[in-house]
Amino acid sequence: MNSNDLVKNILQRDVDEQDRILKSTEVIKACPVEIDLGNLLVWDPNAVDQQAYKENREEYIKNTMRDNMQLLVNALWEVPIERHDNAIVAKLPDAKTIVPREKPVPKPKPLTKWQKFAQSKGIVKQKKSKFVWDEQKKEWGRRFGYKKANDESKVWLMEVPTSADPNEDQFAKKSAAKKERVAKNEFQRLKNIARANKINVRNDGAIINKKSTTNDVKKALATAKYSDASMGQFSERAVANEEQQTRGFNKKRKYESNLGSLKNEKDKQLKIFEQLGSSTTK
Questions:
Q1: What is the pLDDT of residues 85-107, one digit of tens each?
Q2: Which of 4, 63, 182, 271 lies at 20 to 30 Å from 116 by C-alpha?
Q3: Considering 66, 90, 114, which residue would you say is the last residue of a domain?
């Protein structure tokens, strides 16, 4: 073999290698595939070649997937194309195949107390602009949030009302009022969450447990009466019968003096021994 034949063989081998790697964009199938561009889905109804599949399964699957992917790309280049910020974007059509959801449809959020009231009164929420005019800076600024317009929290001078105490700190008073408003809003938010989860909550935030027995309520009432500094000495009792029922709860235990009578101590010990020796023990 001369040098010319060797060069021809090498060049032919390179051409065959390129043909094997870079396949044609035209794919011919016995049955046309179904393409859903909305979901980027390709459905191949062609039968599987059992002989080729058994000989080399991985290669057969790779070639089939490559052909189907080439058909999908060819279909993508046929749809309308737009250019946004030096990027080519294809405008996909609506999906044809109904794909099942992975998770159930979320339930609608229950209405808050204010939303129910507004719905019953026919109050419609009007959307406000995010920007307002700042009189001090003479420019437009955000209504809420960082660097908002007409921010009164950063003022260096406040006028003292005529009815207020002249020695009262107006800045501290305003800061305390803001903290109270924030706490009230947070409390209302938690009450809305409890109402949505069907948890009975009183106006003071305490959770009402329907499984509480009468005895639990009596114990809670007795504990509340004896929870003040005077240990219930000055707590008024609404009903005399109520005091009779709660008697015995949270009662202080009385201890006898260590320097007592020897005869009483002897009688007490003998009584204990008699109880231990008797057939019926308490």
A1: 788 888 888 888 888 888 888 88
A2: 182
A3: 90
